[in-house]
User: Which sequence fits this backbone?
């Protein structure tokens, strides 16, 4: 999906950058997990972090602009 949001001149850059940003957020999720683990235990801390991450993903998917039938041959 991220590739279709960019013009033809930087599609390959977007395709390789977005998964690396997702991997880069793993330490943030682990910090959140360790923070919640002290008070709530392992199961609930996983549920809290998972809910936040999935919630952000669903929000991002629902609010992304539609590019169907638009000219993507432009310079970003």
Assistant:
């Amino acid at each position: 999906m991220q590739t279709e949001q960019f013009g033809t001149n930087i599609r390959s850059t977007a395709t390789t950058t977005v998964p690396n940003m997702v991997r880069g957020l793993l330490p943030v999720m682990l910090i959140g997990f360790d923070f919640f683990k002290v008070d709530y235990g392992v199961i609930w801390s996983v549920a809290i972090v998972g809910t936040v991450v999935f919630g952000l993903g669903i929000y991002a998917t629902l609010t992304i602009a539609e590019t169907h039938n638009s000219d993507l041959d432009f310079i970003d």
User: Anything to note?
Assistant: The mean pLDDT is 85. Residues 36 and 48 are 8 Å apart (CA to CA). Residues 26-63 form the longest helix (38 residues). The two ends are 17 Å apart (CA to CA).
